[in-house]
Amino acid sequence: MIIDFSKLIKEEERHINFKDQVEVKEISDKNENIIFVSPLEVVGEGYLEEDTLVLQGNAESKVELSCGRCLEKFIYPLEFSFEEKISVSDKSFFITSGKIDFSSILWENIILNLPLQAICSEECKGICPKCGKNLNIEKCYCEDEDIDPRLVLLKDLFDEE
Fold first, then answer.
1. Domain of life of the organism in this record (predicted)?
2. pLDDT digits (tens, 9 = 90+) for 50-81
3. How far apart are alpha carbons 2 and 48 in whole angstroms?
């Protein structure tokens, strides 16, 4: 996403507004590929503060993630606000003629705003650690005999009654 801020530098305008839809297919985060179901919509404004370009706005899209409990795919609404301050003398961001490639900043913000552990719903029961069945779909009949050794005496107490 390229933003033209040349009018700000020439002091023809005090603010610039930008709005764009960025088509993103997928990005890789750690061990998972994140698939974008809808375009990333970016709306914001930019202004100069001395020799610093300030870009702020909002972005939103929908991404497909895998649940950390049951491993099923689900749609996650990705929405975030951003505020970036970039020195006008920073040559790593700027392209000739007063334009900036905002893509790398957007990707950083996308990764930072993804959940650390994606969960399809708060009620998700996950999968059975013994048989691997998805407990949201079917009931598991595995016996849970893993008892904390400190509580074995309590189990015997309930067995006698």
1. Bacteria
2. 778 888 999 999 999 999 999 999 999 999 99
3. 17
